[in-house]
Amino acid sequence: MAKKTGKKKKRILRKIIILLLIVVFLFLVMCFVTRGAEGNGITAEAGIENLELPEPIDGEQIIRHTGYTLSYNEQAEQPSYVAYELTRAEVLNQNVERDDDFRADPMVKTGSAELNDYRGSGYDRGHMAPAADFRWSAEAMSDTFYLSNMSPQYPSFNRGIWADLEAAVRVMAYENESIYVVTGPVLTDGPYETIGENEVAIPKEYYKVILDYTEPDIKAIGFLLPNEGSSKSLESFATTVNEVEERTGIDFYPSLPDEQEELIEGTLDLSRWSFRTSLPEGAYDEDVEEITYVSDPKDRIIEEIYSIFNEIKSLVFEYTGTEEIARKIGLL
């Protein structure tokens, strides 16, 4: 009887050991898989995930729209930055006509700027992510008209030197196959004049930084432009990405390997960039694959929930006669 009990214990012990070995094996496999997934994002050869995104800014909401990401500055009622990748194929896929569907952004938890803030102000609703960069998709184009993507710009600036810079960026994307763009207002040199009930800040200066991470000519360039009309050349506003970081307090392209980031962001060579504002003749005749963008269903569901909730919220305050109070305490 004692022998049988001993054998039974041995069998149980053997099963426990086998089970433990299986658990250890699975654990090691997961460790290797995880290490491999992380490794993909640290070398240029393998590609770096979300390379366009700056370091998150404390207290700001990150919002993803079709084709671009923004960081919303509630105090200024505009984005501190918008970031996106722009490719040659996107520049050449001009499938959608502009439709000026300006509207509040339901995804901003604290409430974005509104149409009335800009109405009669004398300032343009200046796109940070330009509509013309997103003509490859009706959904992407429409998403650029959220007021969370706007900043008050003098008409002479928005329709002049700023529009020229936006056009030059599209040429840069065409010539370099793919670039990573971050742009926005400089919000570190206040106080600012404001417009509208939501007190949308009027920036004194705007920036744009561009990274070409396509071999063999990896490079970056920054721009700082005052919010005013100008007849100067685009080159005269060019600077290093480091200079823009110092002016804005934003850490651009933190996903780059440290040594590369230091070299790329601290170097400016104007001869390596084109400042043309139009594509070469015949560019749009090139054969390019049609772009199909699949947005994250979760983002769309969240956006719809915010939209429905904001409509309900507005109706409740309207019917209870408490709209003014709600606006004063930031609920509308």
The amount of helix comes to 25-40%
Structural class: alpha+beta
Morphology: globular
Biggest sheet character: 7 strands, antiparallel
Distance between the termini: 81 Å
CATH level 4 superfamily of the largest domain: Extracellular Endonuclease, subunit A
Please tell me how large the radius of gyration is: 25 Å
Q: What ranges have pLDDT less than 50 throughout 5 or more consecutive residues? A: 27-45
What is the arithmetic mean of pLDDT? 85
**Secondary-structure element string:** HEEEHHEHEHHEEEEEEHHHH
Please state roughly what percent of the residues sit in beta strands, choosing from under 5%, 5-15%, 15-25%, 25-35%, 35-45% or over 45%.
Answer: 15-25%
- CATH class of the largest domain reads Alpha Beta
The number of strands is 11
The number of helical runs is 10
Order of strands across the main sheet: 1-2-3-6-9-10-11
Total number of distinct structural domains: 3
Reported CATH architecture of the largest domain? 3-Layer(aba) Sandwich
Assign the CATH topology of the largest domain. Answer: Extracellular Endonuclease, Chain A
